[in-house]
UniProtKB/TrEMBL annotation:
Belongs to the binding-protein-dependent transport system permease family. This is Peptide/nickel transport system permease protein. Residues 96-296 form the ABC transmembrane type-1 domain. It is a multi-pass membrane protein. The keyword Cell membrane applies. It comes from Marinobacter pelagius. It is found in: Cell membrane.
Length: 310
């Protein structure tokens, strides 16, 4: 490790961010659980006992086997199997990876659109501000899930079930990302309106810097703190939206497991006693969303000194 790297690590350890993190047990536990789930999802091909996408490894005769510890369980399937005979542990690992991909992808798209439109509206003002914010107001007047359902239904009807299944991940990223950008845009706009009145912006104008450079190199870095907080919470919201759309049949197909599609696939079998097909993926979804929200709350408190009580 180089001297520069050691110096940066020492500065980080001494920073307020690190100090507040190591004192907050909820944040530490939440981060540890989230890191464990992300690593398990990333290395799913190495950790999973079976590949749920490989039809050669699926035996319909193994369908609806209970988890280990129950009567009729098979040690080869620790969490049991679903109605198609797939190992539930493997489908959860792969499904968590799909849900996280959609969550992070949708938030990246939200951040791109929200930051771009928020900067333009806040810095340029006038008609640009009025048009962009009226579009955001109209979109915010509808619930995010309603917008996602409408757009998802239109896309599924246009492409058909087979084609939609092949591009479902990208379509869900697009649908959820487009449905959520106004929240980030309004936050960025409010920060830009405050920042553009400060002296460093006037100094940049006097020095002859162009509008693009002032917006992206001077104002944008000073508006990132609230964006990080919103983005963290929005990842959890995007994962929930994916699960809701999949449960309604407008998200991931059952042949491509996500946490939402796993919950939907087992819902019809609860009455027959195969509760684990829905319950176990549901618990994983709850834990995943919970730890992300807890980290988002901690980030909000740390990045806002008026709220932080540590």
């Amino acid at each position: 490790m180089t001297t520069a790297t050691v110096s940066r690590w020492d500065r980080f350890r001494e920073s307020f961010f690190w100090y507040s993190f190591k004192r907050d047990k909820v944040a530490i536990v939440s981060f540890a659980v989230l890191l464990l789930m992300v690593l398990a999802a990333v290395f799913a091909p190495l950790l999973a006992p079976a590949d749920p996408y490989d039809l050669a490894q699926i035996n319909i005769m193994n369908s609806e086997l209970p988890p280990v510890g129950m009567s009729g369980a098979d040690p080869a399937f620790p969490l049991g199997t679903d109605a198609q005979g797939r190992d539930l542990l493997s489908t959860i690992l792969y499904g968590t990876r799909v849900s996280l991909m959609i969550g992070f992808g949708a938030v990246i798209l939200q951040a791109f659109l929200g930051i771009l439109f928020g900067l333009l509206a806040g810095y340029l003002g006038g008609k640009v501000d009025a048009i962009l914010m009226r579009i955001a107001d109209v979109q915010l007047s509808f619930s995010t899930l309603m917008v996602a359902i409408i757009v998802g239904a239109v896309f599924k009807a246009s492409f058909g079930n087979l084609m939609f299944g092949e591009i479902a991940i990208y379509m869900l990223i697009f649908i959820i990302g487009v449905a959520e950008w106004p929240q980030i845009a309004r936050t960025v706009r409010a920060s830009v309106l405050a920042e553009k009145k400060k002296e460093y912006v006037d100094a940049a104008k006097v020095m002859g810097f162009g509008t693009r450079r002032i917006m992206f190199r001077h104002i944008l870095p000073n508006t990132l703190s609230p964006i990080f907080v919103i983005a963290t919470v929005q990842i959890a919201n995007a994962i929930i939206s994916e699960a809701a759309l999949s449960f309604l049949g407008l998200g991931m197909p059952e042949t491509q497991p996500s946490l939402g599609s796993l919950i939907k696939s087992g819902f019809d079998y609860i009455q027959s006693g195969s509760w684990w097909i829905t319950l176990i993926p549901g618990l994983v979804l709850v834990v995943l969303v919970l730890v992300i929200n807890l980290l988002g709350d901690w980030l909000r408190d740390v990045m806002n000194p008026r709220l932080y009580k540590g």
